[in-house]
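User: My notes are a mess, but here's the protein and flavin-adenine dinucleotide's SMILES. Can you give me a structure?
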Amino acid sequence: MDLELPEELRLLQSSVRKFVDETLAPHEKEVEEKDEIPRSLIAAMGESGLFGIGHDEKWGGQGFGKLGYCVAVEQAGRANASFWNVVGATSGLCGTAIELGGPDAVRERYLPDLFSGKKVGAYALSEPGAGSDAGSLKTQAKRDGDAYVIDGAKTFITNAPIAEVFVIFANTDPSKGNKGITAFVVERGTKGLEIGKNDEKMGL
Ligand SMILES: Cc1cc2nc3c(=O)[nH]c(=O)nc-3n(C[C@H](O)[C@H](O)[C@H](O)COP(=O)(O)OP(=O)(O)OC[C@H]3O[C@@H](n4cnc5c(N)ncnc54)[C@H](O)[C@@H]3O)c2cc1C
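Assistant: No problem, the inputs look usable. Here's the predicted complex:
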C-alpha cells in the first residue's frame, strides 16, 4: 500500500502550511483576546482558497476532495482552532448540506460565495434539548402561503455571530418524527432571525 500523498496534495500541504504560519498564526493572540477573527483575515483565507479545498469545482470549490480537506485541516491545526472553525462551519457543514441536499438553483445561489469565503455560513441543527439526539429537535416550520414560518431556538451554532447564510433544521410534520425534519437556507437579516449572545469558549 502506498501511503505517500500524491504530488498535488503535497504541494497543497506546503502552501496551506505556509499560509497558516505566515498569515494566521501571527494573529492568534489578538483573536484569543478579542474573541473574534478580523474580517480582513477571513477575506485572506477566502483568497487563499481555504474554503473550497474539499469541494467540487462545479460549485466553486478547489476539487481536492476529502483527502485534500484532511490535509488542509491538519495544517490549520498549527494555529488557533477558531480559524478552521470558520471554514469548517461555512464549507464543511453549511456548504456540504446545500451541496448534498439543495436543488441546483439553491446550490448556484449560495455555494460559490461559501466556497470562496465571500460569505460565512452556519449550520443550525443543535437545540438546548436536542444535541446528540438531533432527531428530537423541536423547531417547527409551518407553511404560510408560499413561504414557511420557522419557530424555535438553536444553540452552540458556530459562526452564528458573523454568518450571512444559515442552514436551519426544522420539522415540517412532527407526526412523522425525525422523518419530518428538513433544512432551510435562511439569510442573515431575515425578519425574525435573532442571534443570541456569544458563548465564551477556551481556545476557540
Ligand atoms: C464548540 C462547539 C461547536 C458546535 N457547533 C455546532 C454547530 O455549528 N451546529 C450545531 O448544530 N451544533 C453545534 N454544536 C453542538 C454539538 O453538535 C452538540 O454539543 C453535540 O451534538 C452534543 O450535544 P449536547 O451538547 O446537547 O450533549 P448531550 O447530547 O446532552 O450529551 C451529553 C453527554 O451524554 C452522552 N450521551 C448522549 N447520548 C447518549 C447515549 N444515547 N448513550 C450514551 N451516552 C450518551 C454524550 O456522549 C455526552 O458525553 C457545537 C458544540 C460545541 C461544543
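Residues 126 and 154 are 6 Å apart (CA to CA).
User: Great, I'll file this with my notes.
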